[in-house]
Design brief:
4 helices, about 20% strand, globular, three-stranded antiparallel beta sheet, Rieske Iron-sulfur Protein, single chain
């Protein structure tokens, strides 16, 4: 017996079933590898969690708010203030008209049509406003009480920006003679029910 014949005799007989199994397994592993390689690419088509929430409407329960109280929420990266105004606050608004730069909210870009009124709101008692100063974007202090202030001896309550001393009343209207030139921005919003405000969506049927 030759050396070649001797080595051949030591090899196990060929198993066709095993060959098919190895071929199938190799194919599966290859396909799985290709799928794994494609997954990051396919996943990149899906919006991130951050992308899904940016700009999404925000629901706020205001049922427990007391008159004079303010609540802050974030929508589209901006601070939105919700204030429940009392009767005194509402009565003061028209009395302050002659001190305001835009008392009738005539700059249309600063509020939707349904908030273009003396209260700048859908319901008089609830102010919903972007409380970033319209000068350079600082967040003003909320000073709702009627009391003399270093910047205004006849202060009737409102928002005071400590960055450059701009002032706004409790409807977000800007005072005359301050660095800010525009009223606070009123975002789109509506009342889903008596206790829930949805910020980021206009009321149904609004122009």
């Amino acid at each position: 017996m030759s050396e070649t014949d001797s080595l051949a005799s030591l090899q196990p007989p060929e198993n066709p079933g095993r060959r098919r199994l190895l071929t199938w397994t190799t194919g599966v592993v290859g396909a799985a590898g290709a799928a794994a390689a494609l997954w990051p690419f396919a996943a990149s088509w899906k919006p991130s969690a951050r992308a899904r929430i940016v700009g999404a409407p925000v629901e706020v329960n205001v049922g427990g708010m007391e008159p004079g109280q303010i609540m802050r929420v974030v929508w589209r990266g901006q601070t939105i203030g919700i204030m429940r105004r009392n009767e005194r606050m509402l009565d003061d608004l028209e009395r302050l008209n002659d001190k305001m730069a835009d008392p009738q909210s005539e700059v249309e870009t600063q509020q939707p049509p349904y908030a273009q009124n003396v209260h700048r709101s859908i319901r008089p008692e609830f102010l919903v406003a972007n409380i970033h100063c319209t000068h350079l974007g600082c967040i003003p202090q909320v000073l709702p009480e009627v009391e003399a202030q270093p910047f205004d001896a006849e202060w009737r309550g409102g928002f005071f920006c400590p960055c450059h001393r701009s002032r706004f009343d409790l409807a977000g209207r800007v005072y005359s003679g301050v660095p800010a030139q525009l009223n606070l921005l009123i975002p789109p919003y509506y009342f889903a029910n008596d206790e829930t405000i949805v910020i980021g969506v206009d009321p149904e049927g609004a122009a």
